Amino acid sequence: MKTISCMKIDEQLLKSYSAEIKIYKEKEFIFREGDSPSYYFQIMDGSVKVNNYNEEGKEFIHNILENGQSFGDPLLFIDKRYPVNAITLKPTTVIRLPRKNFINLIKEHPHVSMEMNACLSHRLYFKMIMIQNMASQNPAARITGLFDYLKSYSECGDTHSFNVKLTRQQIADLTGLRVETIIRTIKKMEKDDLVKIHERKICY
């Protein structure tokens, strides 16, 4: 499956529009659910988890992003607050550009806007596919839909090139399946050559 990587804007271009570099500690919030979007964020080094919690306090992980990837972009174009949190998983360096400056950048550099539209459309496509698969009674279809969606954020296009950075429990939470079902289905997917497992890490 060919993928389009999460949109990355040249760091020198961002700096020319007054972007700043900010360093976050491990497990630090970059933004919280309910905050107003104020910046375009792009990871220079580190790892960021995008999540939220339900009324019972159960965590729902939307994605885990790494070097060169951006997050929170769609909210810069609409008057809505963040429905998710962005939390660092380890010490992380982020380059961030104020919202007004970001809008000026894409107006003055149409190719950036076109590339971003392609990236957002790609994400939306795989999000819809994932939602369709979640309605399936077939556990492998649910898991495949989730993995395809997560992989769509990466530059990994080859089979078994994408490292799934989720625990079995997190996969269960995201697919609505029991963790025992996840373990059993992943083993069957390995036999069918849909995934590779190395030191308990899943490669899709």
TrEMBL record:
<protein>
    <submittedName>
        <fullName>Crp/Fnr family transcriptional regulator</fullName>
    </submittedName>
</protein>
<keyword id="KW-0804">Transcription</keyword>
<keyword id="KW-0238">DNA-binding</keyword>
<feature type="domain" description="HTH crp-type">
    <location>
        <begin position="137"/>
        <end position="204"/>
    </location>
</feature>
<feature type="domain" description="Cyclic nucleotide-binding">
    <location>
        <begin position="24"/>
        <end position="106"/>
    </location>
</feature>
<dbReference type="InterPro" id="IPR036390">
    <property type="entry name" value="WH_DNA-bd_sf"/>
</dbReference>
<dbReference type="Pfam" id="PF00027">
    <property type="entry name" value="cNMP_binding"/>
</dbReference>
<dbReference type="InterPro" id="IPR012318">
    <property type="entry name" value="HTH_CRP"/>
</dbReference>
<dbReference type="InterPro" id="IPR050397">
    <property type="entry name" value="Env_Response_Regulators"/>
</dbReference>
<dbReference type="InterPro" id="IPR018490">
    <property type="entry name" value="cNMP-bd_dom_sf"/>
</dbReference>
<dbReference type="InterPro" id="IPR000595">
    <property type="entry name" value="cNMP-bd_dom"/>
</dbReference>
<dbReference type="Pfam" id="PF13545">
    <property type="entry name" value="HTH_Crp_2"/>
</dbReference>
<dbReference type="InterPro" id="IPR014710">
    <property type="entry name" value="RmlC-like_jellyroll"/>
</dbReference>
<keyword id="KW-0805">Transcription regulation</keyword>
